[in-house]
Amino acid sequence: DAGLNNLYADLYTKETKWEFLHTLEGSGLEDIEIINIYKSNDSPWGYRGSKHRKIFLSDETIADSRSQRRSRQLNNFGGNVPYEVWSKYINTQLNDFPVMRKCIEPFKSLTIDYQGNIFLCCMDLYKSLIMGNVHDDTIENIWNNELFMKIRFVLNKGRRDLIPTCYFCDRITYRVGLYGYFGRKYSLLEVGEISERTNLGEYVEQLFALREKEKQNELSRS
């Protein structure tokens, strides 16, 4: 009734997907069609202005065949894919990182959780880098704080290697020319605060250790 007629749902947790569907079925809402995107030719992007409401599910477990499950590429956005499954699901190696490309995610959007914390971007599922909290400061102040500006400065130069959260991220953003950096220019010494403020957790620390080991092996072979 508020105008939403198209909802695209990614269901990542096996424990909740059927509960989600049962909740919808018992909600009493009328004229809602639940669509398995792997089995339908419908597009989730073509229903603007329509009063017929559709929910598109892209859960891999409801695909009928292996070919359907492979229709979506698994990326390592934010370095969130466990290293143990890289060889099975993504075509990348430790020495492919860091991806030295610009990223405009922190230039164009904010990610806020239910507690009011603002994170580096929506790819930071580990919540490793908190930029501020809306209960403690205004969104405008957080958006323009020095930590955010340093990160934008670094990412505008394509230096993902200077941000631990971005080091193992293979996110490729487009139209980077539309989001230029017009703030203060920092030295590499000044951006060290980014690493100090980052809490990556044990998993990503292991990746850094493995990456360093590979570097040493490469040097010994040469």
Brief sketch in words of this structure:
By secondary structure, this protein is α/β, with parallel strands linked by helices.
Instruction: Tell me the span between the first and last alpha carbons.
Output: 66 Å
Instruction: Give the % helix.
Output: 25-40%
| H/I helix tally | 9
Largest sheet: 3 strands, parallel
Q: What is the strand tally?
A: 6
**What structural class do you assign from the helix and strand content?**
alpha/beta
Mean pLDDT across every amino acid position: 75
Oligomer: single chain
The order of strands across the largest sheet is: 1-3-2
Give helix and strand order, one letter per element, not per position: EHEEHHHEEEHHHHH
Number of spatially distinct domains: 2
Protein name: 4Fe4S-binding SPASM domain-containing protein
Pfam families: SPASM
InterPro entries: 4Fe4S-binding_SPASM_dom (IPR023885), Aldolase_TIM (IPR013785), rSAM_sf (IPR058240)
